[in-house]
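Q: Here's a chain of 239 amino acids. Please give me its 3D structure as tokens.
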Amino acid sequence: CVCIYGKKRQLEKQYVGFATLPNQVHRKSVKKGFDFTLMVAGESGMGKSTLVNSLFLTDLYKDRKLLNAEERINQTVEIIKHTVDIEEKGVKLKLTIVDTPGFGDAVNNNECWKPITDYIDQQFEQYFRDESGLNRKNIQDNRVHCCLYFIPPFGHGLRPVDVEFMKALHEKVNIIPLIAKADCLTPNEIKKLKDRIREEIDKFGIKVYQFPECDSDEDEEFKQLDKELKWRTSRTVTL
């Protein structure tokens, strides 16, 4: 039996055909690694840097300069990138965090989201130009793949700036809104606030990221994992 199994494995290694393409693509992708760009947006003091450092077990903001109240009011929206290389079980990930200091901190927040939408558009245009060029071997994907938007826990739902920001971005990037500083609220208060914000998101036609539905031909293990992720998400501060 061992001899037959060994011959079978040897034949599989020698086999050449389109059936081996998935394995070839997988090996090439793992060797090259992946790019992921995460944007974090929300006014100062909402715990953005703390959450990012906790998620990826690293300190991306060790050189950050803290501004006083007067400096925050006069600060314009900036785009700051932090890049770190992460490896897990042999899979490499180039993680880029795009921070947006100054967003929502001014007295007049009219169109404060404009520098952010301009940045997202520029990354799409750059990627399109690179893909259209002749040398596409070492293209860097700097497109923003996901945006975590921090909603203040104080108040009765979405503010006008929250609505306008998400409406400006929801066709360009996957938005995941979450309630910041949720530990200062009781579970009942969190539930009421989440329900109110969800109603307003539907009312204003804002598209936020949702887990895709499983195909009917997926295996049971994957279906169970998808179901568990959706259940866990429903019990967190994400919306």
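Q: Can you summarize the key feature?
A: Residues 114-132 form the longest helix (19 residues).
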